[in-house]
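User: Is it possible to get a 3D structure for a protein together with its bound compound? The compound here is 4'-deoxy-4'-aminopyridoxal-5'-phosphate. I've pasted both below.
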Amino acid sequence: MTDAPQIPVRVRPAIAALPPYRQGRQAGADAFKLSSNENPFDPLPGVIAAMQSATAVNRYPDAGAARLAQRLADRFGVEPDEVHIAAGSVSILSQLVLATSGPGDEVVYAWRSFEAYPGLAVVAGATSVAVPLTADFRHDLDAMVEAITDRTRVVIVCTPNNPTGPIITQAEFEQFIDRVPGDVLVILDEAYAEFVTDPDAVDGMRLLGGTRRDNLVVLRTFSKAYGLAGLRIGYAVGHARVLDAARTTGIPLSVTAPAEAAALASLDAEAELRERITVIAERRDRLAEGLRAAGWSVPEAQGNFVWLPAGEHAVDVAAAFDAGGLVVRPFAGDGVRITVGEEESVEKVLRIAASVVKDLP
Ligand code: PMP
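Assistant: Yes, that's possible. Here is the predicted structure of the complex:
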């Protein structure tokens, strides 16, 4: 007899050792849920109507979400086969890592960054190589280039970085990708791109036109700025053959017709959504400035969230917010991420943050 837990089927040891995905906690009726970087606005009426008009749910959806792919291709000045749509951009991350990396291969990413990255490497059987952020919570792009070996198949870069907030500039990114070997895939995860107000920030789509880098895939999502997190729809833009590899490893038909219809309707409602994005970005700036004034060293915040570098106090700090009716996301030993939510939550965040900071040693 061994002490190993009894598993009725033989699960790969690497998978058995991996914790399953844990969602940001749901909030009670009287609390604000600021733990999952969601959009606090209700869906637009046109989006609901479009979803409801996608009634032929007895039929499978269009496998490539062709109408949306065409629409995004027109928008970004690429061909439809240079756009790939899937059930959330996290699905595309998984597809790309599976397509490129297996046992012995290396997946390089910054840390701390989006929690899914290390797990995706493990699932693929690849080796995960985490490159620490700089002291001001930015990607250390030089160190990331240095971490690339003959075994590296993918480098994932996240801007603005979830959960810490800073962007990578266009100049920094261009210098970086010029130093990455052309057979290494660079995934530029721009899940929060629409919230960015820093004019120097990288816009990956600008590198996909004339001066394209064939090893670059830019990831975006309808979950954040477009407020469709519950529908699960995201997209990638890049070289058609690279995206074919993602289409091959992906589960077919996972983008539903209501999700595609809602995404198209969101693109139709761009002006209204832009106004909402502006409101969230202004709220974010107010929050970040208020937190700094209270004594927190909040790094540059360019997504729809702010980062409190609470270090070893992260869990206690999050508990204090929780007790005050704000569900936030602690990263044990590191910090607390607070989503920019409803207007009424801003004052509450600032009040609790100001009182908590006084209790810290
Ligand atoms: N990338 C980053 C950096 C994220 O923070 C998230 C969501 N938290 C995703 C990708 C995945 O988003 P989705 O699957 O909802 O498109």
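The two ends are 48 Å apart (CA to CA). The CA atoms of residues 52 and 258 lie 7 Å apart.
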